[in-house]
Amino acid sequence: MSAKPIVVHHLENSRSQRILWLLEELEVPYEVKKYKRTPQRRAPQELLDVHLLGKSPVITDGDVTVAESGAIVEYLIHKYGKDKIQVPEAGWLDNVYFTHYPEGSVQPVLIRRLLFKLIPENVPALIRPLIRAVFSKVDEKVTLPELKLHGKFIETHLAKTKGWFAGGPNPTSADYMMSFTLEIMIDRAPEAVGENIKEFVKRVQER
Ligand SMILES: N[C@@H](CCC(=O)N[C@@H](CS)C(=O)NCC(=O)O)C(=O)O
Question: What are the DSSP calls for 102-115, one per residue?
């Protein structure tokens, strides 16, 4: 471990939660540096000074800076968690899949739902009813059905593993990555969420 503790550059209400949970489970010392969002909900300049993309999470570990939550999870497990986080052989592919699936496939749809809700609130009042009607139709016909499909897929997988995503006795990278996405899904798309997802999030929060 480097002499200086790991620093988690934590933007409020962000994916950093995945990293904080992982570091707690790994029992690796770390510091949290908090950043407030701008009035436009963006990251402040101070976060752009840490990494050119200015996205959260970012960690610094000695001279190494790592961005992108999936990359951070894999880096931390590779460097500090080989003994603690073991993926069962039978769940190896599920672990790879569910490590990449939340950012690659689910988060973009959840973000689209949020944006399509925010856009009508930010147009001139005169055209707001029209814009709201258009975006609400898109939500009903495209976004929500897509989220329901993801919900069904995740429910079906969790019904098989009855626990963590890779089917083992402890969380693996897939669970750290899925945790934040499923919390957001419960919040933004409760219509798409079933009992297995709720139980998974409860299990995560209990730890
Ligand atoms: N795929 C990236 C997404 C990072 C991301 O978009 N983070 C959001 C917070 S959850 C952010 O920094 N938003 C502020 C901004 O874009 O200015 C990851 O998993 O780390």
Answer: IIIIIHHHHHHHHH
